[in-house]
Amino acid sequence: MNELGLSRKKLEHAWLQYQQGLQPDTRLEVLHSWDRSRGRVAADQPRPRVMDMNLAYRWWLESELSSACEPILPNLSDLAKQGDFVAAISNEEGVLLWSAASPRMARISEGVGFVPGGHWGESEVGTNALALAMHTRKPQTVFSAEHFVQAVHDWVCYSAPVIHPATGRVLGVVDLSSTWENANPLALTIVQTLASSVNRVLAVTHQRMVPDQFLSLNVCGTISVRFNHQPLKLTLRQTEILLILALRPEGMSFEELYAALYPQDEVSPSTLKVELSRLRQALQGGISLKHYRLTVPVYTDVQAVRDLIRGGMLQQALGLYKGVLLPRSDSPFLESQREVLHSEITEALIRSGDQDLIWQFVHAFPEDYLLTQISKSG
């Protein structure tokens, strides 16, 4: 047995001692975290809570971390995929908001809820590197059975906190994790360097604020429209108008919007003008009426799915794509978008060759003939 294996065996023994009420031989930071975890977290729990991925993605877009982390995301993603890690960024509560992973670690991460929306605070899942880095405000490694929950004893995690240079508040954590045999102390240096880069960006842009007005459109599955974090009660046609404008951020003429919305010329143009007036009022003037476009920041799960596909994060894309785009819509533009988006997902799945993801998709969309045949042949 090599040195890494011996360390793992020693930690498993210490963890068992602690669970039996004995004094374990482990470092104090871990022991104190175990003490905080005991009574709040079951050591045999399989995985933490995982919130809706739409909400996690929206939190990511709205967070101060999103733009500050943008320069490090390509490097972080490449490191994860090339080094067989999962990379993650959490908020100050330990909720994962962004991740990228190698194919193997993506599958393993899904099994333990180490995905966007997963709650990895100490009160949720006990001792782990993200929680320890936030608690101690310094980079941390948590190896194998140093984790309080047994489900992640096969893991090693390296985390560094992102600390706002102006306020001193811990905003979140940059993390690299893998299975224990892939342990590499260099990973701790990497996350520390990347977190420092984020801190430098924050030092320059610390006055950046979350937009006062924000529109959110979820249309793939359960339809939900929110403005300023409050639900809007809209008709299908009104939702269609907002989605068309969201997918055409450059704006469009009244005639183009009319043609994109209505399948035939049987609806009076004045009807569309009334709808636009009502929507503009609901969005507190957030629609320009000279050249029709949204003037407030907007999130759509349609664009989020496309971004995830482009980033190679198919598991996360499928998590958002819970149904076809507005299935009852007869808008010519949205019917086309519906077909294109579905094709983009199926083509990405075919390129990936990932049978687990294909089966997941076929289970959700059994009417998709092409992927059903591929899954049977696989």
UniProtKB/TrEMBL annotation:
InterPro entries: GAF (IPR003018), GAF-like_dom_sf (IPR029016), OmpR/PhoB-type_DNA-bd (IPR001867), Sig_transdc_resp-reg_C-effctor (IPR016032), WH-like_DNA-bd_sf (IPR036388). The keyword Ribonucleoprotein does not apply. GO terms for biological process: phosphorelay signal transduction system; regulation of DNA-templated transcription. Transmembrane segments: none annotated. One of its GO terms (molecular function) is DNA binding. Residues 229-294 form the OmpR/PhoB-type domain. SMART domains: Trans_reg_C. Keywords: DNA-binding, Transcription, Transcription regulation. The keyword Ribonucleoprotein does not apply. It holds the Pfam family GAF. It comes from the Bacteria. This is Transcriptional regulator. It comes from Deinococcus cellulosilyticus (strain DSM 18568 / NBRC 106333 / KACC 11606 / 5516J-15). The lineage of its organism: Bacteria, Thermotogati, Deinococcota, Deinococci, Deinococcales.
